[in-house]
Amino acid sequence: MAALTPAEVRALASLVDELDYYQLLEIAREAPASAVKRAYYAVSRRLHPDANRDLAAPDRETLEAVACRVSEAYQVLRDGRRRKAYDAQLAAGAGGRMQLAEAEAQAEKQALDHHMGRTPNGRRFFNLARGDIDRGNLVAAARNLRTALTFEPDNAYFRKKLDDVSAAQRAAAQRR
Amino acid sequence: MAEIAIGIDLGTSNSCVAVARGKRVEVLPNAYGEHVTASVVHFAESGSVGVGNAARAALIHDPRHTVASAKRLIGRYSFSEEVKKARAVYSYEIVDGPGHSVRVRIRNELFSLPEIAAMVLKEMKLVAETRLGRPVTQAVITVPAYFNDNQRQATKDAGRIAGLEVLRLLNEPTAAALAYGFGRGLTQRVAVYDLGGGTFDISILEIGQDVFEVLATCGDTYLGGDDFDDRVIDLLADAFVAKHGVNVRKDPFALEKLKFAAENAKRALSVDDEAEIRIPEIAKSPEGVPLTLEHKLGAREFAALVGDLVQRTFKVCDEALGQAGLVPRDLDGVILVGGPTRLPLVRQAVETYFGQPAKTDVDPDQVVAMGAAIHASTLIGGGTQDAFLLDVTPLSLRIGVAGGLAETVIERNTPVPIEQTRSFTTYQDDQEAVKIRVYQGESRKAEENELLGQFEFGGLDKRPRGHARIDVTFAINSDGLVNVTARDRETGRQASTAITLSSGLSAQELDSIVAEKRTDRVVSEPAPSAVPAPAAQTSGELEVLDDADLDSLLEADAESLDDIGAGVVTPLGDDLGVELGAPAEEKLFESGDFDLSSEDTQDPSQG
To answer: To the nearest whole angstrom, how far is the Cα of A154 from the nearest Cα of chain B?
Structure first.
């Protein structure tokens, strides 16, 4: 394993703020999820302070900062949700760095949007179903959820809600 | 002379030291030939300090001056549950130190917990130096993966007090996985189930050739084999009260005897279906008649006593698997670590939970030290084959915000090293300082987490509220240690603190303790003449051989046979500090390379 020279470390450190996470891990933007882990291993092997024990203390500290950024890149890109949020930030030209808490918050927000529905009709019928559930009208809720699903057949959250409602209906039927 | 660095497993009940050279890893036995040394410290009246089995025996006859299970207290606040419990259970005196820290008072002398731990480390250092015949100054020390920053910092301080440069604080399960997978070119996902004397850890790792990536780590630093003993003690003491009307818990000597008996019963149950407990003259009846405690503890009764503790570990396993996004059948192997995993009850439960037999090719008492040794040798560049560790932080790092809440800055199981920055502002006009509180834990409520420390960032320019911008950077390094820096964005002024937690030692305190050299009082006892000193190389070796290795080893072995004939002696206590000639030292290492599994590993005292 070829260790880095002090000059290389300094060059890398000065560059790190310019790089987005894909560039840092040396993978293409469309690289599959499995490539992220491989890239993290490969880059860590080269950049991890443990692999560069011979550097003088200040250089090792500089390198540690780079290694921190590599961890951050991996933590964002390894998770499909966070990666999507990061891609959106890149597309918006809002910089190549994303705090982990921010990535998580954005990912949650996207998930919530997904819960609420992506199409106007999906959202409309899902909202109707939520009202039905609040009023305890499970039959109407199930019908509206089924309708919402015709607009967004792949919406796992709608599907799960429908399963929940069906289960509640069965339980209610049993009690009677 | 080539650099050398050792690996030390600093355990709650027992400690173990190992060294790795190239692909060969060996556990270094103490003067008694034991591979593990009791983590018990005895302060003799003469002022000398003994560590190990002799000290453990002193628990019975001199409990007030004997400190056991110090690891349960290290890095804890004096008001913590663990410390409260220790005050009730241990006979030595536990007192409050500055900033809610814990001190131990022995014969009117105060010791911090890092100092006590340092005495155990010092003993392990002496064991290594004796066996290697040369001074040792560098070490990798293992800690439970679930240790928080306070506990880690205190352990690192202990290393420094013991005169060791701590190359790395390594998580115990990670070390175990390293020892298991090192040099084998595996591509596997494994779980390490580590039930120690005082702590439980579960880590899920992905091994990809030479890379060891921790996917998730969870744990419980309030759960271990000691708790099993406590259940047995309660059973015995309650039965004794019922039968004789005498509470043996009130007599410290009787209580120590009871603890010993409980521990031995637990060990017996690792091999037998039944343990016979008999303590003659444990107490006297009100009429002055000596009473004997007798009890037959069956495996089934024991299982009923501790079953809930074992089940508690699986809740933690669920959590770890969930964090790693895996189910038990995704795993290629389960590695058991820690004495209590020798109990059939524990082993069977683990195998049921994971749906597969546990790996038995590693010794649960020694595997952690061996992993530490491998990592130590890699870090100083002595490894012929690098093993590369990618670990995570086990606990979420949080910052205190309004309303008594704590907001996550770095989520648990994030790879380390890592650095994150948050911006803060003032909430009052002309506010000149902000207070920053840092926590570790998984609760939204600040008070339910461990407070690592707090610091005030002052000297802000007077501005309307919300105008100041203070960037606070949180960093966790590869040791799992936390560092916090604050910077005023306007002025660029910076304040930094390795959070000096209130429960640890301040920098000045540490310096004066190091200068005081109280660990010099640790004296290694020479082996009793009745016990023959074993050859330096014994069982506990973990070898990975390919054909080329085998050839070179065979050659080495041929040479070493001569050495045995010539009577190479293992250096003992007296030779300490005297450097042996290099050839003798090399041979010392090679003469028993093929003695892979001697019977000493069956020593029940290691349970």
So the answer is: 22
CA neighbours closer than 13 Å in the CB half-sphere of residue A164: 11
Query: Over the stretch B376-387, which tens digit does the pLDDT of each residue have?
Result: 998 887 544 578
Q: Which residue in B129, B157, B194, B590 is the catalytic one?
A: B194
The encoded tokens of residue B452 equal 């690592």
Predicted pLDDT of residue B525: 60
Using the Cβ of B324 and the Cβ atoms of chain A, whether some distance falls under 8 Å is answered with: no
Amino acid identity, residue A127?
N
Q: B194 an active-site residue?
A: yes
Which of B107, B128, B104 lies closest to B116, judged by CA? B104
Q: How far is CA B353 from the centre of its chain?
A: 25
Q: Catalytic residue, from B23, B26, B62, B71: name it.
A: B71
Q: Which CATH superfamily is domain B393-477+481-503 in?
A: Substrate Binding Domain Of DNAk; Chain A, domain 1 (2.60.34.10)
Average pLDDT of span B263-271: 90
Average pLDDT over residues A45-73: 90
CATH architecture for segment(s) B225-304 = Alpha-Beta Complex (3.90)
Residues of chain A with CATH 1.10.287.110: 6-98
Single-letter amino acid code for the residue at B400: G
pLDDT greater than 90 at residue A82: yes
Least confident stretch, A14-28, A32-46, B533-547:
B533-547
What is the DSSP track for B22-60? TTEEEEPP-TTS-SSEE--EEE-TTS-EEESHHHHHHHH
Separation of alpha carbons A69 and A60, rounded Å? 14
Interface contact flag, A101 B477, Cβ < 8 Å: no
Residues A44, B418: C-beta atoms closer than 8 Å: no
Please give the structure tokens belonging to residue B18: 């190992």
What is the number of other CB atoms lying within 10 angstroms of the CB of residue B465? 12
Superfamily of domain A6-98: DnaJ domain (1.10.287.110)
Cα(B604)–Cα(B607) distance, integer angstroms: 6
**Are A64 and B415 inside 8 Å of each other by CB?**
no
